[in-house]
Please model this.
Amino acid sequence: MIINKELPSDGEFVLIKISKIMPYGAYCSLTEYNIDAYLPISEISSGWIKNIHEFIKEGQQDVAKVIFVDKEKKSVDISLKKINPNEKKEKINEYRLEKRAEGLFNQAIIATKNSDKRTEIISKLSTNAQTYTEVINNSYSNKNSLSSLLGEPFSKILHEIVVKNTKPKVCKVSYIVDMKTTDTKSGISTLKNIFSDIESLGVKVLYLGAPKYRLVAEDSTYPNAEAKIKKAQKIFEKNSKKITFSIAAMKPE
Model:
């Protein structure tokens, strides 16, 4: 985060390190906050716990869910059992991306010789963004995204650093098309024309064995990739007097 919050929010997923285990719970430090949280024994596992040390260890790092926040007392309770593997994986990936984004931002600070102005720069950024990841994503797509806040030189150098160190995100969607031609005179020619029109949209057509074909579209976002498939579907519909078809989505890649 660009500006660290004093306390996490109720329901937030947090990175923790178990620091002290007690008979009925454990105290944990929160990696992203300068505060400790309490993990009740009833929130460690859904099953009955006879020996708490069989479930958690001091020094263990994990992801937990915030289940209670007392802003006045600055106390936080967390749960391990109220988070599933997918949520845990997503939180860890989010944290890694944020630390990497912060590293790229710091490179720009050093490259522009603004180390002594870092606090001032962060303060300005906080008016438009909450995370370094957000800043880096905006800089990647638009080299002038920070010009109005921090000036063109900084915005340009950050963009160059981000582009050099970041692989463009590729979102791929695939659809299976079952298609047959009703054009008895020039069926093959009809199919070739349809496939040519579809490929001009940036959609790959892969032959799987008559009458099945696979359509593959790629873009920087899933909605954009899906939009290409929708345009391809319109081409099928346009030729509905010459073909019969059905189309079904595969799992996003």
